[in-house]
Specification:
Elements (H helix, E strand, L loop, with lengths): L6 E2 L12 E4 L19 E4 L10 H9 L7 E3 L21 H19 L4 E6 L1 H14 L3 E7 L22 H7 L10 E6 L10 E2 L4 E5 L13 E4 L7 H4 L1 H12 L14 E8 L15 E7 L12 E4 L5 E7 L4 E7 L5 E6 L11 E2 L13 E6 L12 E3 L16 E6 L7 E6 L2 E6 L7 E6 L3
Parallel strand pairs: 3-4, 3-5, 5-6, 6-7, 7-10, 11-17, 16-23, 18-23
Antiparallel strand pairs: 1-2, 2-10, 8-9, 11-14, 12-13, 12-15, 15-16, 18-20, 19-21, 21-22
Helix pairs in contact: 2-3
Amino acid sequence: MKLSRRTILQGAGSLPFAIASLRTGAWAQSAPAAALPSDPPPPILFVHGNGDYDALWMTTLWRMESNGIARDRMMAINFTDPNARADDKVEQANRSSTEDQRRELAAAIAELKRRTGASRVALVGSSRGGYAIRNVIKNGGAGDVSHAVLCGTPNHGVFATDDQPNNEFNGRGTFLRGLNEGESEVTPGVAFLTLRSDGMDKYAQADGRFIGKPGTPTGVTNEGPELKGATNLVLGALDHREVAFHPRAFREIYKFIAGREPARIAIVPEPAVKLSGLVTGTPGGVSTNRPVAGATVDIFRVDPDTGERNGAAVHSAKTGADGRWGPAQVEPFWALEFVVTSPDAPTTHVYRSPFPRSSDVVHLRAARPLGPADKDAGAVVIMSRPRGYFGLPRDVVLFDGKEPADVKPGVPTDSAATLRLPTSEVGRKFVAQFGEERIVARAWPASENRIAIAELTY
């Protein structure tokens, strides 16, 4: 059957997320055969993007579990050095090459196969994670992989120019030309799906203003994440991260791998919740997933309306050489404050919404150091959204009762907003609101080298 150039699909939720389009190239592959209701999907390995960490997949893992996917049949890789090099061929401290990522991903695939006994696994990647997936499949790993889902991966580059030939994000560079050569851009024998935004992805824009070069053509378009030979799906006005982590993206990921609609999109709470994770650091000012030894993690239950602590810490631990903390037993309706005291970093108070399910990827990283912009502040408070950006006027975004002044309108580009409060306001509550998620936190004194973060889950 020949698919039309633009097919409107039924989607969950309200506009703009309900409208999607299916696009196929001339070499479109067959979709994976529909699974019977009793057929379990293959094990799934989730792959994060540039500068990120496996914890971003937490809500996706919860949704998978809520649809009956066993926790031990899923895994999320945590690349040691998640940031790309400026030049893929030149070693750079605490940054990784495409070959580094290919090697780490190949090892993770082998481990998931060993753990589950499966002959092939499904791979799901966000942004740069899709590069590692394509690289491992094209270079000897196709027999280990059944499905490849690439979410917002800049498959034709963030830019496409004749300079910087060894930058992996250059569509005309050595790395991407190698992946994209040939009539079909996918590897036979593996079912490929791409998910992209309809104009709201900051890394798929014709103008260079989103990569620091306003007015300079990038040579790429909104269609940059698509691949000839793949099933290419457009998810409406979702941003660069949301095309991986939004409920709308979950539906398409699950459906493509399992061969059927998910039974539910909502996360089903567990009666008892155990949390654990990793404390990571920023050596040389570069975010890494390298463990931090000697960090202290204290967890407090807090009042969801005031941010005040309800008694003593419910968990306290010091990390060893592996950087891990936990497990901590909490209730699925508790709002929480995590206090991270890490060597040579600000004491960081992270306020979180209740955790409906258990997770072992509740990773913690101390806030960035207080800098010149903070010198006159009595308190520094940050509103952070790791699984998406703040879109104005697309989203309801309120920080201390106002739209954040440091969030740019239009194409969503900012995942954090900062308030600097006078000394007279130290200790008061502040509210971070994104859509229906609301976190109440407290302002801590910057004079004590403390920063507060309201970290959104959704």
